[in-house]
Every structure is written in structure tokens, then in C-alpha cells.
Amino acid sequence: MTKHRRLTAAEEAAIQKRIAADPDAPEASDEELAQARPFADVFPALAESIKRSRGRPRIAAPKQAVSLRIDPATLAKFQNSTHEWRQVMTAALDAADAAFIERLKHERGIPVVADISRLGKIETRERGARIVQGPREARARKNPPR
Asked: pTM surpassing 0.70?
């Protein structure tokens, strides 16, 4: 934190003199201050439009921020796949159906969502990512029905 020195009486007087001489910002008198009303009372429509337009518009289903503990190798696969790796990870999680998740839970004995190498080819587009070939399609191609 920067320490400021106190103004001398002469410096303060010079500043006050410049404030009083400014024609664009006259100091309000006590009578003017007594007559002052809140902005919202004087301009209600404008005040309401300003209040409504602040910030980003609300969306129906906002994304949730979560904290996950992910194996470093799995995270590296996602991060090295594209600069849009978060969208790719979201697509991979969306593509993991309930049966796939339950099978992984049963096989490994721990709650596991997905392994990127088992999801198939992931295609990125300008607005998001989608899985082109999922685990079922990959198995069907490797082991065609007899």
C-alpha cells in the first residue's frame, strides 16, 4: 500500500480555488441539495432500462462449475486433442450413456465416467464438439455379427 503525504494548507487552498473557478462543475448550494431527488424518481423508465440491461442475459440452463479429480494421463489426452478440449470433454461426458457408465463402475469397482480412448473419434466444430463414433459402433465394426 502506498502512503500519501498530507497536503499542506497552501496546496489545499490552491485545489479549492481551482474547484471554485471551474464553470462546468459548480458546487451545489444547501438549497439545491435539499431539493435533490433520487434518479429513479425523476427518470423511472430510464432507471428501469439501466437496471434490466446490466450483465449477461440469463439463460435457461446455465453451465455448472464443478471440481473433478482426473487422472493426469486422461486429462492430457483431452488437452492434447484440440484447443477446445473442454468442449470435447463435455461431448465425451454427454455421449457416455447410463449402461456404459454402470458397466465401467461394475468392472472397475469405482465410479468412472469415460475413457477418451474408448469413446471413438471426436469431431470438433466451430460451436462445440460431437462424438462421431461411439463405443458401441466401434465394437460392431471390430466384431461384425455372424
From this structure: no
